[in-house]
Design brief:
Low-confidence stretches: 504-519, 633-643
Radius of gyration: 28 Å
Mean pLDDT: 86
Structural class: mainly alpha
Number of strands: 7
Number of helices: 32
Shape: globular
């Protein structure tokens, strides 16, 4: 009976099966040209047949090994050639991603059981199946991880590049399956073990873990709550066993994983055992000595400093890590940064002072020894010529460190409570120079795209009237206008302008020096006002005493907005608060589902301020009209309770 399969698919079977025990790998690569890859992958039935064939062979090999303890070489060769062909094809064409990933997910429960990969790190399942799945997940979401992406994945027949909103949505659908998330963590563990063992052909790290951490951090934390501890253990193991060059790729992916998770739950990193010590060691490992692979002051310094500021929200974690404190002092003692690199003196010194003042106020009544030993650095820092922005901050912090590390001050602190107001930011619970953004990169309010539709390198457009609404094209702009932006557009402009005018200086809006008000455009000032960050003391266990929700709710409604147009994000340890457009927040990685937020305000007819805490599982507080003092004829008492 004649085959009903397309001729090209029949030719594909002949190439991957070959004429003997070992098919010709080069023939497979040559056959899978970009045009051939597109022709096969753009046909959903052909793409599904290709991956289903691989699934069947791998299933048979896994069963065979479980019974006999050995593998059929013919079967292994056949599986390897199929995996290799799909690897080549998906590098050249993205058109089959949905069909391929769908077939993978169908086979996942029958092929993978948690723990099976670590039992045999050389298993055929990992070598030809999980490796391909991991690469495909990375490729379909590469624009989320690498900007600009390193792979075109576009043959001449593929049409325009795929918008990254589609990739994000695809990864989001995958992340619904906790089994896949556990697989991504276990596969990273396997690649670390294989790299440490210097196994042939095992150079690359598991990429899907970072993909899920960056795009779906809450799903990852729900499926694997101890992922932060696992990552830190892997970092230490890699540095113990390998050279910087051999460990660099794995360490970079692991750092990206921590960054992704910290977006929704920074406290988890601060509570992790040895986090500050391990992060500092990673920086030293990659940037110093003859084997260094990263220049000091470059990307590695930026990432590690960012994560140490996250850890610093739990000051005791830094105080317990002398190497981390020494790292901070070394950054302050370093000369001017290389061209094109930022200076870390202000945040490093601020973090050191944060630890010093809290240590003095604690039961120990002492400053950690590395900070006392660095007193000459603080003296030099305090004498820096002030030139505005970060220099002024660094000099002021240096003067405060000189004071708190002086012996008379430290001795006095042991017999009486240290005076308040030593730090330049004494009115705030955490150094402003060390605050990490609570907001995320802009995305289209309607579809989640991070760039203009069909133009990956073109930035998103802003609403020409208010400058706040963000869109990837006319279609999404019109959809958002009909969905409610028509009502809120003018109100956003008024709200942003009012918030900007309320700030003491535009420097507070920009975080690093700001700009001259005379040169700041109206739209830029409006956006800066909308996303302005404020700090309050949020450490009280009872949020009913907070005054800022009442003040901000009045500001929102006074501008003509409705409370359902905004959400507030808070980070209690650092006292950080930012009120953002709900339409923008809905597109963020790890956003609390819209259904949950709508349900939270439903009891108040939508007139409620929803406050989202930066923790996981997500914690949403709702301040209703009574708590906010918005009911006609009432004013909120100082101790008003949450509605």
């Amino acid at each position: 009976m004649a085959s009903t399969e397309p001729p090209l698919l029949q030719a594909y079977w002949q190439v991957v099966d070959g004429d003997g025990l070992f098919p010709d790998a080069q023939a497979v690569v040559s056959f899978m040209s970009p045009d051939t890859s597109h022709a096969l992958l753009s046909d959903p039935s052909a793409a599904k047949a290709m991956i289903s064939s691989l699934n069947r062979i791998v299933r048979a090999l896994v069963d065979q090994f479980a019974v006999k303890g050995s593998l059929s070489m013919a079967g292994f060769s056949s599986a390897s050639m199929r995996s290799r062909s799909l690897d080549v094809a998906t590098k050249a064409c993205h058109c089959g991603d949905d069909a391929l990933l769908g077939a993978f997910m169908t086979a996942l429960p029958t092929l993978y059981k948690p723990g099976c990969l670590l039992k045999d790190v050389r298993s055929v399942l990992g070598a030809v199946w999980v490796l391909l799945l991991d690469e495909l997940i990375y490729r379909t979401a590469e624009r989320q991880i690498t900007d600009p992406p390193t792979m075109a994945r576009q043959s001449r027949h593929c049409g325009p590049p795929e918008d990254d909103g589609l990739g994000r949505a695809r990864v989001g659908r995958l992340a619904i399956n906790p089994l896949l998330l556990r697989l991504s963590v276990e596969w990273m563990s396997v690649t670390v073990e294989r790299r440490i063992g210097r196994m042939m052909g095992c150079d690359g790290p598991g990429q899907s873990l970072a993909v899920f951490a960056i795009t779906c951090p809450r799903a990852l934390l729900s499926a694997v709550p101890d992922v932060v501890d696992t990552v830190l253990v892997h970092m230490a193991a890699l540095m113990d066993a390998l050279s910087p060059a051999a460990a660099e790729l794995h360490l970079r992916v692991l750092l990206r994983t921590l960054e992704g998770v910290a977006v929704v739950d920074p406290g988890r990193l601060g509570r992790a055992d040895g986090a500050a010590r391990t992060l500092t060691r990673v920086h030293t490992f990659l940037t110093t000595g003859t084997g260094r692979v990263c220049p000091p002051g470059g990307g590695a310094t930026d990432t590690v400093m960012h994560l140490l500021c996250v850890v610093g929200g739990t000051w005791t974690a830094l105080a317990a890590a002398p190497t981390a404190l020494t790292f901070l002092t070394e950054l302050c003692a370093a000369g001017p940064p290389p061209t094109g690199c930022r200076s870390y003196v202000a945040p490093a010194a601020s973090l050191a002072l944060h630890v010093a003042t809290h240590s003095l106020a604690s039961s120990s009544r002492s400053v950690p020894a590395p900070l006392v030993a660095a007193r000459p650095t603080w003296v030099a820092l305090s004498r820096r010529r002030r030139g505005g922005g970060g220099d002024d901050v660094a000099a002021a912090v240096g003067s405060a460190l000189v004071a708190v590390t002086a012996e008379p001050y430290r001795l006095a602190a042991q017999v009486m409570r240290p005076p308040t107001g030593v730090a330049p930011w004494s009115s705030a619970p955490f150094p402003p120079a060390c605050l990490q953004r609570l907001t995320q990169p802009e995305r289209c309010w309607a579809c989640g795209n991070g760039h203009m539709a069909g133009a990956p390198r073109k930035p998103l457009s802003k609403c020409s009237a208010c400058g706040v609404g963000t869109y990837c094209g006319a279609t999404c702009a019109k959809a958002s206008w009909r969905a409610g932006h028509k009502r809120a557009c003018g109100a956003w402009a008024a709200y942003g302008a009012a918030q900007a005018n309320a700030m003491v200086s535009l420097g507070a809006l920009h975080g690093e020096g700001g700009v001259d008000a005379a040169t700041e455009s109206r739209i830029s000032r409006t956006r800066a006002g909308v996303y302005a960050v404020q700090q309050e003391d949020l450490t009280a266990s009872d949020a009913a005493g907070w005054a800022w929700p009442r003040a901000r709710a009045r500001q929102v409604e006074a501008a003509g907005l409705q409370l359902r147009d905004v959400v507030a994000l808070v980070e209690r340890p650092t006292g950080t608060i930012v009120v953002v457009p709900a339409a923008s927040y809905a597109q963020w990685a790890g956003a609390v589902p819209a259904a949950v937020l709508h349900g939270a305000a439903r009891a108040h007819g939508g007139r409620a301020l929803r406050v989202i805490h930066r923790v996981h599982p997500p914690h949403v507080q709702v301040f209703g009209p009574r708590a906010l003092g918005l009911e006609e004829g009432t004013s909120p008492p100082d101790g008003s309770t949450l509605a």
